[in-house]
Specification:
Blueprint (H helix, E strand, L loop, with lengths): L3 H11 L12 H12 L16 H16 L3 E4 L5 E5 L4 E11 L12 H17 L5 E8 L12 H7 L4 H6 L8 H7 L4 H5 L8 E9 L4 H5 L3 E7 L1 E10 L3 E2 L11 H14 L9 E10 L5 E2 L2 E10 L2 H21 L3 E9 L3 E2 L2 H12 L7 E4 L4 H5 L5 E6 L15 H21 L2
Helix pairs in contact: 1-2, 2-4, 4-14, 10-11, 12-14
Bound molecules: zinc ion (ZN).
Length: 435
């Protein structure tokens, strides 16, 4: 019987258009490397189990380091375990163009989310070597630690450390999902807490960062396009909203004498659903958690605590939507004679992709005879964090049925390879012209 990776590679190659292997970009190599990575942390459901700061993530990084060294990259690692492979520029050594992604996964995740972006960034170097292209500026491939955040229920851990935005106090106090303190988790993979907190990079020499990533949605599939260009990365605002009424007997309290927190919350949830469309076409809002107290079959709900996840790629409209949602909660609370309170858990600024970056990526995509289509990224990525320091660009790859964070996650090898051609051209244009 074939091992999982053999079948995985065969499936990728079966429908591969071999004419896409050109200009040094090699689809067979990508398939084999995706396959080799898929074996590290393979779950019983044929998914990926490479939690951030786990031995599996470490092993995946080690495999990449071997390939990076073989491709003549000068490899180093920072205090957060981010792996950086450098190829010195032939002309402007002190200017850097970066590309990369992550190798960790959610528990039982897929084999493309993260690895594809890392392998794409490496394949650009392989292609340059084969075609004899000498990048004028320095190129850096980065593998970020713990992007998914399943370890500490946060995310973007490595990229946050690199940008110097880590909340030290919070991280020192945090335990992982197995109740292991942060310090010990780091030590398990050979890292030190102090090293972690001193891993920020000076970005003044970096011109731009690029990331290839699977779309994790169905828009490209609906458009019939292999790749798309990210117009901006939505920043989430997480609001906890509480409605406080009065618990009472479900039989003995007349309807006109109730302070039903769940009736208020239910009305509010419906309004949250239609609020984004009033603000922008890319905004979204989701009530994902709801706790009802006392949660009894014959008791009028006295209190409801819920979360609202609010996102948009523009700060102005995202914040406008957050304010609007708060106002809707206040009005609804009043209508049902309940008290409303808010606790803002997260507010991360969205990262718009600047015009000059968009035009370079558009040109790169158009050079492959692909219609350049812009789409927002609703999910956060390492590029969002790096985008706080330098201009960033992202190329999305079509996801089969939009599935991700699941063993069934799939992108065809043709689409993956096209995204690599687009990334390569994007980086070359950035090297030659600047942003
Ligand atoms: Zn990812």
């Amino acid at each position: 019987m074939n091992s999982f990776s053999e079948t995985f590679i065969d499936t990728l190659l079966k429908k591969y258009d071999h004419t896409l292997t050109k200009q040094g970009v090699n689809g067979e190599r990508i398939a084999k490397r995706l396959g080799a990575l898929s074996e590290i942390g393979l779950t019983p459901d044929s998914g990926s189990g490479r939690m951030g700061f786990s031995n599996e993530e470490r092993a995946a990084k080690n495999l990449l380091i071997r390939w990076m060294k073989a491709a003549d990259l000068e490899v180093r690692e920072d205090g957060a375990g981010n792996v950086i492979g450098k190829l010195e520029g032939s002309d402007m050594k002190d200017r850097v163009v970066m590309a990369g992604s992550h190798l960790d996964s959610v528990p039982n995740g897929g084999h493309f989310d993260g690895p594809l972006g890392v392998l794409a960034a490496l394949e650009v170097v392989e292609a340059w070597t084969e075609s004899g292209y000498k990048p004028p500026k320095t190129y850096e491939l980065v593998i970020f630690s713990d992007e998914e955040g399943s370890r500490f229920k946060s995310g973007l851990t490595g990229s946050t450390a690199m940008t110097g935005h880590t909340n030290q106090e919070k991280m020192r106090a945090v335990n992982d999902v197995f109740s292991t303190p942060f310090k010990e988790v780091l030590e398990q993979v050979g890292l030190k807490e102090e090293g972690f907190f001193h891993s920020s990079r000076d970005f003044s020499d970096v011109e731009a960062f690029f990331e290839v990533h699977i779309e994790q949605g169905k828009r490209l599939e609906k458009e019939g396009l292999p790749v798309g260009i990210v117009s901006g990365i939505a920043g989430p605002c997480w609001l906890q909203v509480s409605f406080k009424g009065k618990a009472g007997h479900a039989g003995n309290t007349p309807m006109d004498d109730r302070q039903d927190a769940l009736a208020a919350a239910g009305d509010f949830v419906r309004q949250v659903y239609s609020a984004p469309a009033e603000v922008s076409t890319s905004a979204v809002a989701t009530v994902g958690q709801l706790q009802v107290y006392p949660n009894g079959i014959n008791v009028i709900p006295g209190e409801v605590v819920m979360t609202v996840d609010i996102r948009d790629i523009h700060k102005k409209t995202r914040d406008e939507l957050a304010n609007r949602i708060k106002e809707l909660a206040r009005q609804t609370g009043e209508k049902y004679n309940t008290e409303v309170s808010f606790d803002e858990k997260v507010r991360i600024p969205p990262v718009p992709v600047q015009e000059s970056v968009l035009s370079i990526v558009e040109e790169a995509v158009a050079s492959l005879d692909i219609r350049p289509v812009l789409l927002p990224s609703g999910a956060g990525h390492d590029a969002m964090m790096i985008g706080r320091c330098v201009p960033v660009g992202m190329i999305f790859v079509r996801s089969l049925d939009g599935v991700s964070h699941h063993p069934a996650e799939w992108s065809s090898l043709n689409d993956c390879v096209l995204s690599i051609h687009a990334l390569k051209r994007t980086i070359e244009l950035t090297m030659e012209r600047g942003i």
